[in-house]
Specification:
The protein is an all-alpha fold. It has three helices and no strands. It has one domain. The protein is flat.
Length: 85
């Protein structure tokens, strides 16, 4: 496991308050990190794990994107791209 577990974890039901913009940006940073590992890691097992976790990460980003503040999200994306690329 690099960022995400392969097993589905479910806690007790009930509302959980999460800032969707912050959650999206956290997952986007994980996305950039996992992409880096999937391309640059010398370990083939780590590259494979990163690719599997990218799928999980993309699903989480898609979920939070629906409720995120778009302007703040885009500004955060640009800042993360400058940091990682």
């Amino acid at each position: 496991m690099i960022c995400y577990s392969d097993t589905e974890l479910r806690g007790p039901g009930g509302p959980i308050r999460v800032d969707p913009t912050k959650a999206y940006l956290r997952h986007y940073e994980n996305y950039l990190y996992l992409q880096f590992l999937s391309r640059k890691s010398p370990d083939p097992q780590e590259r494979g794990q990163a690719l599997r976790e990218l799928t999980i990460c993309e699903r989480k980003m898609k979920y939070h994107e629906r409720e995120a503040d778009k302007a703040t999200m885009l500004a955060g994306i640009q800042a993360l791209k400058r940091k990682w690329l």
